[in-house]
């Protein structure tokens, strides 16, 4: 699904054939599929309205108007039959049922980085709250929206919460001014508290491994600390130095090259295909000899939100690899072998890393850098894929299909779908 101004366009993922075209009341700011892909939500934040469309019954539609309360966020519940709307100033979260048309209210939600999270099985929801200048967590049962647990947290200014994939542990982290990660059980017991240091800026990013065995914590000191699920103690610390010296680490460096043009085919005026090949540059990966010095950017200390520390973390689907990005070294992706707890590969790009995401089915990482190329890494090696087409298609974000057979590549104004051939086993 994609939106163009006030129109919602639904296409077939395999052929991009147009399936449905819906018209909303105003410009669409956010869209989201229900978990069973039968409904699609369109949020019109400026009007405080959510419109819901059915794929099975195109004539059916639903409209939710928050009125004077306004709207700043909207999402589906895991069952795909309830919608959670957050009103302006985070006064409350309204839970709307599409089946019974009933309404429930959750008061005092906190405006933070990540304040509402569901367990992977969809049974429970945790909400970060702020009451009387203190942080709280409320855990709800998603089947009937009954409150299961309500407890206060040992945080000064809670920044985010995240469930472990098995739904047994909730990670809570404090403001960047206070390095503190707290781990709570489903019944609200504090299992452990982790604090790496005291005074400098603290936690910047967090990621659970798919098996729930590891919790990776990216910090402003350019390090990743990994906790184990048995004792919740640190098992290793992953540094991101500007110089790669280990001979066991493979460094892939992106290099640009001008394409060779057959002079006998030259004609004036040149054909469109020839012109595009004449003035476009191609890129490929070279393996660099260690030691390798990476481009290091010194952060500006007197500005807000300095580009420093580990801001992006992601585990591969098989738990074997961890991909990280240190904002001080913006052109590099670090890939760690979790089985050996060692740095395996560094991808050194020509431009700043915008986004990376693992294939949901196998250890294959897709990277984009704001250019018209997408980069793929797997244990077998690296490849650069040039997006065909006219004009400058700058990829700023990407998203894998759940099957791992294709991915959506997004630029500022357009999108395209990249299909990958599955290897025969």
Automatic annotation (TrEMBL):
One of its GO terms (cellular component) is MWP complex. SMART domains: WD40 (SM00320). It comes from the Eukaryota. InterPro entries: Centrosome-WD_assoc, WD40/YVTN_repeat-like_dom_sf, WD40_repeat_dom_sf, WD40_rpt. Gene3D superfamilies: YVTN repeat-like/Quinoprotein amine dehydrogenase. Pfam families: WD40 (PF00400). This is WRP73 protein. It comes from Eulacestoma nigropectus (wattled ploughbill). The lineage of its organism: Eukaryota, Metazoa, Chordata, Craniata, Vertebrata.
